[in-house]
Amino acid sequence: MPIERLQALDNVEKEIASCIQSAGQALTELSKDKASMKQVESHTSQFLKTLNHVEGELSKHINYLTQVSTGQPHEGSAYGSVKMYKTARHRLEHTRSRLQDLENLKNRALASTVRPASAQNNP
């Protein structure tokens, strides 16, 4: 899916180059002393046709990116699952850390209660 999208964007880039070329040809024809209006119209028509197609393709890609960036479910995305996994992993690590802190606190409390008792038994 991502490869197809990149290839589609590559095609759009080629169409943009074609669009610029058509515009350049129309301007070149207009700059001549005896410009052929038929050629100018042909190049202008090709320019507008390509430009409309480029606009449509870019709109499709922008809509797709809008869906992806807002977290809406869409075909082929693992963003939501990855985000949930990372959040769960973070919670797990936090829980482990807190349990370790509680274990250390318990051990210190036990050690402090054992020391005074042993000190009383050994006068």
Automatic annotation (TrEMBL):
Q: Which GO terms describe its molecular function?
A: transcription coregulator activity
Subunit description: Component of the Mediator complex.
**Which residue positions does the secretion signal occupy?**
none
Record's Gene Ontology CC terms? mediator complex
Lineage per the UniProt record: Eukaryota, Metazoa, Ecdysozoa, Arthropoda, Crustacea
- Give me any GO biological process, just one: regulation of transcription by RNA polymerase II
Q: Where in the cell is it found?
A: Nucleus
Name of the featured protein: Mediator of RNA polymerase II transcription subunit 11
Q: Family membership, please give it.
A: Belongs to the Mediator complex subunit 11 family.
One Pfam family, please name it.
Med11
Q: Which UniProt keywords apply?
A: Activator, Nucleus, Transcription, Transcription regulation
The annotated regions of Basic and acidic residues compositional bias extend over 97-106
Family annotation (InterPro entries): Mediator_Med11
